[in-house]
């Protein structure tokens, strides 16, 4: 039996929400495997350019940036068209962009609901809709949607986020069935808590607000639902992403892959 390579040399990947956190880590992992990258997301222009240049120099690949707003369908379509025009192909689409808001359902701001559904769910519809014709023409493509443990289970006070992530899983499964014979796979990665800069910044604030130690915040608040009591590491998500994006994952289609320390096992 021959080992199947996860080399992505010569391929092109678009990753939404990739200027920081999980998205930036995923972009770095794909670039390390040889893929040319189109970054997308918000942030300081100088910091984004520094990230773009760093990835290109570190991995010896081409890296571009497109500023598409994930609430604007025309800009999203232009992101996909830009990637195709720059590199002549689009092999990997990673839908990672997302925001969060926590509130009781009766107090949930309508504008927050609309924004979360637009960015966390509807933007993926628009990227996929634009990318599939390109991938069909190539006879191959990989679409990986960053869902969440909340695509599989619910938590209180997160109505919009949980609804959007459940929707992402439904979208994943539906499109997977439509494109299966075209050499395209569509899968969802469902992380538990990841120690992003945003999460790290919340630890001290939560400890102060609750009058408990930072260790207790991590164990009893943030990681209460994760049996391992450990954050998911970036590299663990990258490892699964590379599997799904490469020929190694060619028979995985329409699946949800929990990376949550056992959260959804119960």
UniProtKB/TrEMBL annotation:
EC class (word): oxidoreductase
Molecular function as annotated in GO: 3-hydroxybutyrate dehydrogenase activity
Span of the signal peptide: none
SUPFAM superfamilies, alphabetized: NAD(P)-binding Rossmann-fold domains
Domain of life: Bacteria
Pfam families: adh_short_C2
UniProt-listed PROSITE patterns: ADH_SHORT (PS00061)
UniProt-listed InterPro entries: 3-OHbutyrate_DH (IPR011294), NAD(P)-bd_dom_sf (IPR036291), Sc_DH/Rdtase_CS (IPR020904), SDR (IPR050259), SDR_fam (IPR002347)
Enzyme Commission number, as recorded: 1.1.1.30
Positions in coiled-coil regions: none
Keywords per UniProt: Oxidoreductase
NCBIfam families, A to Z: PHB_DH, PRK12429.1
Entry's family note: Belongs to the short-chain dehydrogenases/reductases (SDR) family.
PANTHER family the UniProt entry points to: 3-OXOACYL-(ACYL-CARRIER-PROTEIN) REDUCTASE (PTHR42879), 3-OXOACYL-[ACYL-CARRIER-PROTEIN] REDUCTASE FABG (PTHR42879:SF2)
Protein name: 3-hydroxybutyrate dehydrogenase
Organism of derivation: Hyphobacterium lacteum
């Amino acid at each position: 039996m021959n080992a199947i390579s996860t080399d992505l040399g010569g391929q092109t990947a678009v990753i939404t929400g990739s200027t920081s956190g999980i998205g930036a880590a995923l972009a770095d992992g794909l670039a390390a495997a040889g893929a040319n990258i189109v970054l997308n997301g918000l942030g300081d222009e100088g910091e984004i350019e520094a990230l773009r240049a760093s990835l290109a120099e570190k991995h010896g690949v081409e890296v571009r940036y497109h500023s598409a707003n994930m609430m604007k369908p025309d800009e999203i379509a232009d992101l996909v068209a830009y990637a195709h025009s720059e590199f002549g192909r689009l092999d990997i689409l990673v839908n990672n962009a997302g925001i969060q808001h926590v509130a009781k359902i009766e107090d949930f701001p309508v504008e927050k609901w609309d924004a979360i559904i637009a960015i966390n769910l509807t933007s993926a519809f628009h990227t996929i809709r634009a990318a599939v014709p390109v991938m069909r023409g190539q006879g191959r493509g990989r679409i990986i949607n960053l869902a969440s443990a909340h695509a599989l289970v619910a938590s209180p006070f997160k109505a919009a986020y949980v609804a959007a992530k459940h929707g992402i899983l439904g979208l994943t499964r539906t499109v997977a069935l439509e494109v299966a014979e075209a050499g395209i796979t569509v899968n969802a990665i469902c992380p538990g808590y990841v120690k992003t800069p945003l999460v790290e910044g919340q630890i001290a604030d939560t400890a102060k607000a609750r009058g408990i130690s930072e260790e207790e915040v991590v164990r009893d608040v943030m990681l209460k639902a994760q049996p391992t009591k450990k954050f998911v590491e970036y590299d663990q998500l990258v490892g699964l992403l590379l599997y799904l994006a490469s020929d190694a994952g060619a028979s995985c289609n329409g699946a949800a892959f929990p990376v949550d320390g056992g959260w959804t096992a119960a």
